[in-house]
Amino acid sequence: MSENPMSGGPGGMDEEALKRFLQEAFGGAIPEEALEGLDLSALAQQANLPQDPAQLRAAAAQMQHMFSGQGEGSVNWTLAEDVARRTAAGQAQLPGVPAPSGTPGDPSPTDAQTAQLREAAQVARLWLDPVLAIDVATQELGVLSRGTWLYRTLPRWKSTVEPVAKYMAGAIGEAIAAQLGQMGESPMPIPGDPAAMMERFGGTMFGVQFGHAIGSLAREVSGTTDLSLPLGPDGAPALVAANVEDLISSQQLDAPAARIFLAAREIAHAALFAAHPWLGKALFSAIEDYARGITLDLDALDEMVRGLDLSDPEALQARRPEDMFVFTRRAAQERALEELATTLALVEAWVDHVTTKALEGKLPQLEAMREVLRRRRATGSPAEEMLARTVGIELRPRRVREALAWWDSVLATEGEAGREAKWEHPDLLPSAEVLSGRPQAPRPEAGDDESLPEVEIPTDFDAELQKLLAGEGQEDAPREDGQGGLRDGDGDGEDDDPGDRPA
């Protein structure tokens, strides 16, 4: 920022330059007449705007880029996609976030990588088919770059995050507009439509955070189903070649075995979601329903807004999600989140269960590879943590160990067909209480009016049923007396229900 204020305005700043800045920064959204009569110098000083015209023009150009392309949505997806692409290629990084690791840039899959992964997928299909009671996907395995993974999954991300983004963009806009309106000794009017302008600003900040989170995921995931969500457009299995090789190298895994292992997991996921289309729809619907009801701590957001430097767009983009968004969850949302996490855990555990059955005794380092994924699940990658904080939803499945034990018990008692039949309807899947063994509801007390009388069940029910069918004990059974009553059937010499006889 220049140390020599320019002359021209009451506060020593060039009023015309400030007008141009505001008009250019917000893409012409501010009518020129709305700026008349405002103390622009005071506004500029409160907002820490630079006083040098050249710096003002540069700042306006940066902000105009940030606000461009937002359209009618709640998120500036033009900016989000740009940030995501640069993050996926390792060219963009937010302060406080670990530097990208793994293969530099975004290399395209080589012919050798494509051939190796598709051969691994063929082996995985052959080994999965005997242990599944559903059809194994026959589509050729897609071998992707990070950018292609991003392109294929972005439509699903958009539909998933729009509900929460819509609310939060408005909340950010309201907090910033209120903070700007309180500048100076008396409230200062905001030029143009402050609510719409600041909502666009909130959507821009939101787009930056989403873009970085999804771009970071593109550098980490092996395929399109790592989060137990069907993120691909058509359910076809696909792997990211560079990320698969990075995982093999970083964990010192047997390369051919790891490729088969990862391909088997991706194909199993694809088979499950293809066989039961309701499952993917239910997962995304649950996320959207939860997001629509989320509430934001506006006091915490307002405190964050007070420290913003509107003259530094890069600093605005660098705001950490945990500094911006503090969520408040109602009891109904906690229950919804619990149900979502349980379903995700059941999906992840089912895939682990069937792939282990298919690959056991065939692959070296199978347990080591399973342990690698368990550790990832337990700790969560920085990208997953950022996405969870930004959206307010924990996408990583929990209780996978309990769900895995449940699937083992189902297989032992009901076989493969019975195991797969559990996915026919959501009511057939266990609740979190069933998985954990926690009691679901207190039993009625003995004196409760709604309690049912206890019924003694014969020790050998089959034997008692056989006696009944054979006619044993019929002489003791009460019989009709021909007059609408019951004759003695218990040997006490009295009618069983004399009051029922007609007078």
In short:
By secondary structure, this protein is mostly helical. 55% of the residues lie in helices and 3% in strands.
Question: How would you explain this protein's 3D organization?
Answer:
This protein has 19 helices and six strands. By secondary structure, it is mainly α. It has one domain. It has a two-stranded parallel ribbon with strand order 1-2. The termini are far apart.
List keywords for this structure.
503 residues; mainly alpha; two-stranded parallel sheet; two-stranded antiparallel ribbon; 55% helix; disordered N terminus; disordered C terminus
On the 0-100 scale, what is the average pLDDT? 74
Give the biggest beta sheet. 2 strands, parallel
Proportion of beta-strand residues: under 5%
Order of helical and strand elements? HHHHHEHHEHHHEHHHEHHHHHHEE
Strand arrangement in the largest pleated sheet: 1-2
How does the SSE layout of this entry go?
Layout: H1 15-25, H2 40-46, H3 53-67, H4 77-88, H5 111-128, E1 142-144, H6 146-181, H7 194-218, E2 238-240, H8 241-251, H9 255-275, H10 277-292, E3 295-296, H11 298-305, H12 313-317, H13 321-324, E4 327-328, H14 331-359, H15 366-379, H16 382-391, H17 400-421, H18 432-436, H19 461-470, E5 479-480, E6 486-487
Parallel strand pairs: 1-2
Antiparallel strand pairs: 3-4, 5-6
